[in-house]
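Dear colleagues,

As part of the handover before I leave the project, I'm documenting each prediction I ran so the next person doesn't have to rerun anything. This entry is a single chain, and its sequence is reproduced below.
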Amino acid sequence: MFWRSIMASDIQTDLARFHQFVGEQVADADVRLTPEQAVAIWRHQEEEMAAIEEGLVDVEAGRTIPLEEHLRHIRERFQLP
C-alpha cells in the first residue's frame, strides 16, 4: 500500500508538471507544437534533468576525477598533443 501511494503521488506530480509545461508551450504564440512534439521535448528535458541529477550524486559521492586528468586521458586515447 505504501508504494502505491508513493507511485500515485509521483504520477500526480509528473502530470501536474507536464500540464504546466504544455500550458507554457501553448501560451507562447510563436511556438506551435503537435502533441507528439510536446511529449518529445518533455521527455528530452526529463532525461537531461535525470543526467544532471546523476552527475550531482556522483560528485557528492566522490566518483569524479579532476578535469586535468580527464583531459589527459582524452589526449592519450586520441593521440593528441
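Residues 2-27 form the longest helix (26 residues). The chain has a mean pLDDT of 86.

All the best with the project,
I.
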